[in-house]
Inverse folding.
């Protein structure tokens, strides 16, 4: 019985955190009225989509022992690409494919440089952070890219804002989360990702093609980041090359709050998704409390530290 | 024994429901070398952690020099005179040898490091160990493992400990370095330091220790004068059973040559090696650490590049090799470095065991978890791996059990050529005997086995053919019957 409790704590840590945060905002008088309503959660879910899809790719990368700092720039660049293509009269499906593929292309560049040049992911993606941001501004001629309208604009909202239906983006994020979770847990590729992150030397010794695997991981993650860029475009209804600055840090934080280890080999998709939700609930709740943005930033920063600290405590207990 | 430096009485320690130490008692005189013997999991490590202040005992008393000894943490224990040398070296590899020796005890004036005083103290500690000539300015990472260990011992000696604990100090040393270490321990003994010596090498314990204590399942099951005890008696105490024949010899008749290495050379230490291994043959590679034995295995396996010569595997195309192609050809490799290379410590037993062939348990990239668990379960049962289930994290197992899983990876694959680098390093006698048995059975079943070992009785007991390497060259290959220990040492040290 005692052991069961421990397992629940160990596996459900992030989930308990999420409930705590929700309860925190459900109690005060200022927010009680609206916070726990369906409509508010619809807003929270919609606000989580971009970070959540980014966190899917980031979980793959972090579990494999890597990191990607260029996500915010990749999202800006791919959303500008999408806006330009819509301007040129492309339909929604070709735009979707092209935007996602351009994300994959940036992932390919990252992965090839990391695996081929044997450089640390931190340095390479710090470089592409600048390259992609500059590229986005160049493509967009240093201004926002406007277009007359596209069905893509409707993917992050519902036609009737008061309807109970969730926007398409939320369903896409949920579906992809389930798929990616299965991919990580139950496929050879997924277990090889864990092997690479847990001990690269062992992976090499056991004949896993580590170079190819690394490239592959960054390409798949890049596809996710491209998709996040598409939803960014859908949300803003224009291509903005200065959007999503620093978003990679929110995404990394979601994955870490979700229980992944920056040294690799540990992490779950469910955890990362809950991590992303915790961040979104904190933002949403703070806004409703009327807290200034700097206060939100401080709170989220502290939550990251506390979450990782609690995680370490929990694992220390479990090991002893 | 009237004069006691350190006395432990009735020490107990539990972790949750696990009683790691049930009742341990131990007494050591000044200037005594005391061997602490026991299988992996007998509680030696826990006892050492209690002694060195890393854990607090639940019950029992400890006395040092007649006064109660209650260390709060390892640093406190060190200040009170109990220093510990861990099996895994604790060096800052980027810092110089001198900085490592003085770490935490720097000579300083108002925060400024006093260069000359530091150097003198480091030199003095090294002189005590007979290593005056070590280059103090070199980064620790540039030294061999044996030299790194000397640096670590020098650090412990700096504060003039009353009790020095050494955990498996010779597990990565060659015979020559071991002799040097024994000379060092002799000097420590003469200067009145009490040494607790933990080792799986019983002959070594017999050679160096004055008295011994045997632990089994967290209890002291025997102790006494080393000169009165026979090895068989100690092994019986440790295991609770008699290990009559450590090296079983199943009949095996070598067949065709399955692995041939022709004048192989490669980075960094392999200069020139030729050998032939037949199916059903156990081929031993002896030599000093750094002689290129590990490099030879790694080059054969495609982990290091072959720069000269040829490696031929029967029924496999010639050409550049990678670990991936070698596994596909039925060649398996067991790393000497279980923790850093051999295993993924924070992953499950099942994943570790089946990492080379996960795609075989399902279709289209999907893993059939049931079949994977079943395969792992089979070996866990067959090799008697002590664990909860195959989903347990491998880092939680003892060294011997981890090694069995690492070996099971080759069995499950299945390999037909086994390249085993120090297969019994740092594991208990029971597991060792099991691994010897297994290797012998493999040969009987027609597998080719290459064993690298620094432990000569093991090679002489187990192998059909032994080759000795010296300075990157494999000079002498002969049937086992034509070798004895002194001969091997002469060839290995280049004095033949």
């Amino acid at each position: 019985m005692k052991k069961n409790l421990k397992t629940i704590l160990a596996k459900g840590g992030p989930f308990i955190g999420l409930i705590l945060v929700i309860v925190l905002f459900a109690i005060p008088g200022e927010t009680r009225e609206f916070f726990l309503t369906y409509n508010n959660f619809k807003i929270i879910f919609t606000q989580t989509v971009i970070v959540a899809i980014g966190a899917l790719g980031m979980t793959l990368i972090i579990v494999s022992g890597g990191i990607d700092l260029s996500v915010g720039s990749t999202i800006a660049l791919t959303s500008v690409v999408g806006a330009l293509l819509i301007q040129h009269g492309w339909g929604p499906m070709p735009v979707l494919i092209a935007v996602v593929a351009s994300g994959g292309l940036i992932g390919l560049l990252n992965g090839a440089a990391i695996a081929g040049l044997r450089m640390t992911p931190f340095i390479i993606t710090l470089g592409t952070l600048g390259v992609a941001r500059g590229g986005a501004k160049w493509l967009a001629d240093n201004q926002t890219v406007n277009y007359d309208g596209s069905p893509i604009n409707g993917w992050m909202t519902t036609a009737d804002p008061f309807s109970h239906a969730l926007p398409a983006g939320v369903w896409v994020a949920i579906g992809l989360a389930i798929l990616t979770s299965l991919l990580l847990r139950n496929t050879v590729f997924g277990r090889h990702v864990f092997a690479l992150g847990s001990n690269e030397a062992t992976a090499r010794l056991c004949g896993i093609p580590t170079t190819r695997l690394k490239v592959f991981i960054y390409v798949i993650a890049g596809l996710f980041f491209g998709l996040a860029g598409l939803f960014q475009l859908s949300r803003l209804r224009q291509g903005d090359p200065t959007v999503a600055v620093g978003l990679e840090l929110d995404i990394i934080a979601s994955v870490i709050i979700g229980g992944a280890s920056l040294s690799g080999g540990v992490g779950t998709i469910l955890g990362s998704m809950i991590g992303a939700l915790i961040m979104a609930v904190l933002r949403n709740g703070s806004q409703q409390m009327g807290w200034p943005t700097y206060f939100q930033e401080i709170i989220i920063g502290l939550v990251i530290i506390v979450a990782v600290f609690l995680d370490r405590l929990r694992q220390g207990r479990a090991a002893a | 024994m009237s004069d006691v430096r350190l006395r432990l009485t009735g020490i107990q320690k539990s972790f949750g429901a696990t009683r790691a130490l049930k009742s341990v008692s131990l007494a050591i005189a000044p200037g005594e070398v005391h061997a602490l013997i026991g299988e992996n999991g007998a509680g030696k490590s826990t006892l050492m952690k209690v002694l060195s202040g890393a854990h607090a005992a639940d019950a029992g008393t400890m006395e040092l020099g007649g006064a109660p000894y209650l260390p709060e943490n390892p640093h406190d224990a060190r200040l009170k005179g109990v220093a510990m040398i861990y099996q895994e070296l604790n060096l800052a590899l980027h810092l110089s040898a001198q900085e490592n020796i003085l770490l935490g005890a720097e000579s300083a004036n108002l925060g400024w490091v006093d260069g000359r005083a530091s150097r003198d103290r480091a030199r003095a500690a090294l002189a005590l160990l007979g290593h005056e000539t070590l280059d103090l300015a070199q980064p620790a990472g540039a030294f061999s493992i044996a030299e790194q260990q000397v640096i670590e011992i020098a650090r412990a000696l700096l504060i003039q400990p009353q009790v020095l604990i050494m955990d498996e100090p010779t597990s990565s040393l060659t015979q020559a370095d071991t002799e040097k270490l024994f000379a060092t321990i002799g000097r420590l003994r003469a200067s009145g330091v009490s040494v607790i010596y933990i080792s799986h090498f019983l002959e070594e314990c017999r050679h160096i220790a004055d008295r011994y204590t045997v632990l089994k399942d967290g209890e002291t099951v025997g102790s006494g004068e080393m000169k009165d005890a026979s090895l068989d008696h100690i092994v019986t105490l440790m295991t609770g059973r008699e290990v009559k024949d450590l090296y079983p010899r199943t009949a095996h008749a070598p067949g065709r040559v399955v692995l041939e290495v022709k004048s192989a050379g490669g980075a960094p230490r392999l200069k020139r090696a030729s050998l032939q291994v037949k199916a059903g043959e156990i081929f031993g590679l002896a030599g000093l650490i750094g002689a290129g034995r590990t490099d030879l295995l790694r080059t054969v396996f495609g982990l290091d590049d072959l720069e000269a010569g040829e490696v031929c595997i029967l029924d496999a195309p010639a050409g550049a090799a990678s670990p991936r192609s070698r596994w596909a050809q039925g060649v398996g490799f067991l790393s000497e470095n279980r923790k850093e290379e051999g295993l993924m410590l924070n992953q499950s037993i099942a994943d570790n065991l089946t990492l080379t062939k996960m795609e075989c348990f399902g279709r289209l990239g999907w893993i059939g978890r049931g079949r994977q668990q079943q395969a792992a379960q089979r070996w866990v049962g067959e090799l008697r791996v002590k664990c909860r289930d195959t989903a347990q994290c491998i880092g939680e197992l003892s060294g011997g059990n981890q090694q069995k899983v690492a070996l099971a990876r080759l069995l499950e694959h299945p390999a037909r050529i086994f390249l085993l680098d120090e297969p019994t390093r740092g594991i208990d006698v029971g597991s060792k005997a099991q691994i010897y048995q297994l290797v012998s059975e493999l040969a009987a079943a027609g597998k080719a086995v290459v064993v690298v070992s620094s432990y000569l009785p093991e090679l002489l007991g187990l192998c059909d053919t032994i080759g000795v390497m010296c300075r990157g060259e494999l000079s002498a290959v002969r049937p086992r019957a034509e070798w004895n220990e002194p001969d091997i040492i002469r060839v290995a040290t280049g004095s033949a």
About this structure: Chain A has a mean pLDDT of 89.
